[in-house]
Amino acid sequence: MAVSVFRKPIETPGSHYTGSPALNMDKFFLEAKVLWAQVDANMHLRHSAYADFAAQARLEMLERLGMDIKVMQEVKIGPILFREETVYLREVLLGHSVSVTCLLSKCREDGSRWSFLQEIIRNDGVLAARVQVDGAWIDTLKRKLTAPPEAFRERFLKELPRTGDFVLEPVPDKTAQQG
Question: Where are the beta strands (DSSP E) in the chain?
Fold first, then answer.
């Protein structure tokens, strides 16, 4: 009998996560205040800090699913990105706080490849940026792409909040590609 290494979901302050289906899972995964070290010479949030906020929100999301860093090390997988695109819409200034969403927009049926749409929203409710990422899981020993363990794949596909135009893609037939 397989033993699940996945941890109980972490509930964070202000989280509405209850372990219920995706529609009830809070789409906000990070709330943070802009720090002095994150602003540039124009006194607004530097471009790379948007990516840092988005990445941290994705990690917080994985923790809420019970897939924290320790679990990833135990099962020998980790998330990687193929593409990250940020569209900057409004300035974020020193002293602002931001909230970051994380919505699954596309995923293969086996959970091996995925895409997220994230929004960075200022504390005054203004949408400051949209971040889109395409990624996958890597086997950290073999250094090859892989699907996540079944128990995590099920939670990943069933519990994460999704975009309205979410696409579930079939896993490509490798034998057809070789022919």
Answer: 28-33, 77-88, 97-101, 103-108, 113-122, 127-139, 144-146, 162-169
pLDDT tens figures, 97-126 = 999 999 999 999 999 999 999 999 999 999
Contact 27, 16 (CB under 8 A): no
Tokens 């996945």 belong to 6
Task: Please give the structure tokens belonging to residue 26.
Answer: 């809070």
Q: How far apart are the first and last CA of the chain?
A: 38
For 18-63, write each residue's pLDDT tens digit.
333 333 357 889 999 999 999 999 999 999 999 999 999 999 999 9
- Tell me the pTM: 0.83
Query: How does strand 162-169 pair with strand 103-108?
Result: parallel
* Buried b or exposed e, range 117-153, using 16+ CB within 10 angstroms: bbbbbbeeeeebbbbbbebbbbeeeeeeebbbbeebb
The letter for the amino acid at 152 is F
Domain ranges (residues) in the chain: 24-163
- CATH no. for 24-163: 3.10.129.10
- 70: closest CA among 134, 10, 112? 10
